[in-house]
Write a structure and sequence with these properties.
Blueprint (H helix, E strand, L loop, with lengths): L1 H23 L2 E5 L3 H15 L4 E5 L5 H7 L5 E6 H11 L3 E10 L2 E3 L14 E5 L2 H13 L4 E2 L12 E3 L5 E5 L13 E4 L1 H7 L9 E2 L8 E7 L6 H12 L1 H10 L7 E3 L4
Parallel strand pairs: 1-2, 1-3, 6-9, 6-10
Antiparallel strand pairs: 3-12, 4-12, 4-13, 5-10, 5-11, 7-8
Helix pairs in contact: 2-7, 2-8
Length: 269
Amino acid sequence: MKHHKKKLGALALLGLLLAQGALAAALKIGVTPGAYADSVQVAAQEAKKQGLEVDVVEFSDWTTPNVALASKDLDANYFQHQAFLDNVIKTQGFHFRPVGVGILANIGLYSSRIKQFGDLKTGAKVAIASDPINQGRGLLLLQKAGLIKLRDGVGARGKLADIASNPRKLEFVEVEGPQLVRVVNDVDLAQGYPHFIVAAHAFDPGSALIFSGKDDEQYALRFVARDDNARDPRLLKFVQIYQNSPAVKAQIRKSYANNDKLYSLAWLK
């Protein structure tokens, strides 16, 4: 009996040490460049002061961060809004869920060739996001600008095939979202993301001919985890640090060129 109690005590101690080791392990968060990466880096510095180690892993596309999360190379990612997440869950079968809300970023329509939509010529080239969700958001903005009309009822799920009226015979070029900033000078009009524009030092992110609205919460960024680690206390603590840190808020504003019309903090709504 005495030997049995010693064995149980040793197992309990081993379990405690393993638990402590798990808590001490660095949390890995996947991000994309610009405001998302910069703000998470600041939050990681804040977390370190509280004893939480965080590794920030940067990606240049919108596919790999979810693949890495599914394969457990990441503990969470921070680059996608709810509409994008819902779509990849439906199409890819990922077992993901949001664990916190973040930045609500506006999108805009940018041009280096025209100053107003009336100057857009027939057959002009328009660059738009290639993924179905952000493409739908871009098409809604083009409709808001009076350049196209979508079929009734498609809303944010609209695709190029859903364009019911295109009086200027605009020619669309599909480009992956993070790369849109690189093609603005090659087309007549481009959907754009201010935080990528700031990160690339390309041009004035506030120069869009039109911006989307700030009141559509489904486009606010999410911290996303797998179903099996969504309650990880390290992750929940990190989200809390991110949302409550004055340094993070200051970095976000800096990342958006100190221009409040380019973003809002969705968790404060």
